[in-house]
Amino acid sequence: MSNILEYNVDVNDISIHIVEMGKGKPVLFLHGFPELWYSWRHQMAYLAQNGYRAIAIDLRGYGQSSVPDDIESYSMRNMVTDIVQIIDKLELKTVALIGHDWGANIAWACAQIHPKKFDVLVSLSVPFSPRPPLPLTKLIKKNSSSFNWLLYFQKQGVAEREMEEDYKKTLRRIFFGLSGDAPEGTQKEIVAGLPKNANLLDNIPEPTKLPNWLTEEDLDYFTNNFKKTGFTGALNRYRNVDYDWSDLEKESQNTIAQPTLFIGGELDTATQFNMHAIDSMEKYVPNLKNKIIIPHIGHYVQQEAPQWINKSIINFLNNYY
Predict the structure, then answer these.
(1) At 104, which CATH number?
(2) Does Hydrolase count among this protein's keywords (predicted)?
(3) pLDDT tens, position by position, for the chain (321 residues)?
(4) Which structural domain, as residue segments, surrounds residue 172?
(5) Which of 58, 82, 101, 181 is catalytic?
(6) Where does residue 158 rank: exposed (0-12), middle (13-18), buried (19+ CB within 10 A)?
(7) Catalytic: 299?
(8) Has 114 been annotated as catalytic?
(9) Which residues contact 7 (CB under 8 A, 6 or more apart)?
């Protein structure tokens, strides 16, 4: 990738790593777990070539951004404040906001808490869901008897010990196991079909080779960054879900008014397990312009199907931004 501008900005008492390409209307990208700004490499280059200013960040706790020690600093309100202050720091009035996985959840919250900052939204993998009747961990415990990633990640130090034993193996297995390249049924099995006392990585198959969308160089980039930060910062986002449920009670009632695009992968469990939310999304996102499900694609949609994602995003932006 050429013509990249990389720098850090101080916002909300931390430092955020920013990468940008191109000139034009600003488009801000928010990654998910366990990823980095680098997950958007294909989209950034494409949007820059098509007249947009593509801006991607490492979320707090990731990559070359700050990794605060306290769990509470990873609350959704803090994550949203990071984004809003980045926009102000870059002297932008508004942006188009694109998020994947946790980045999608942050994007939804941004639109609810600071709607005037965001002209349009694109959500990958994670549809908008209304506030549940119980805090999320209590809801999961009530309704599920199998292993659950979110509950496993609540255990401070436990998930870290397993995941940090071999960073490259961890990332390789997670990227492969949740992708469309994994053996049929793998995605559902590792998300919802494991016994309650399972370890995570033991139950994700080791790929015989990397999927075509992930090169050894790509994997090394992710690995080297997580070796520097560890996984605690990233996992601390999961550890705030019950706090967020209480803290954002008022804002979570707000309608998403912006023109919005949703894209999911046919084999993405974040999409498969949320089909009811996808089907009813117009109730809470009345300006939803399109819902796209990409065949044969798993969780890492923007990396697995970059051409499809790029064209879908550019068509949406050209029409509504």
Answers:
(1) 3.40.50.1820
(2) yes
(3) 668 999 999 999 999 999 999 999 999 999 999 999 999 999 999 999 999 999 999 999 999 999 999 999 999 999 999 999 999 999 999 999 999 999 999 999 999 999 999 999 999 999 999 999 999 999 988 887 788 899 999 989 999 999 999 999 999 999 999 999 999 888 988 888 888 888 888 889 899 999 999 999 999 999 999 999 999 999 999 999 999 999 999 999 999 999 999 999 999 999 999 999 999 999 999 999 999 999 999 999 999 999 999 999 999 999 999
(4) 5-320
(5) 101
(6) middle
(7) yes
(8) no
(9) 17, 18
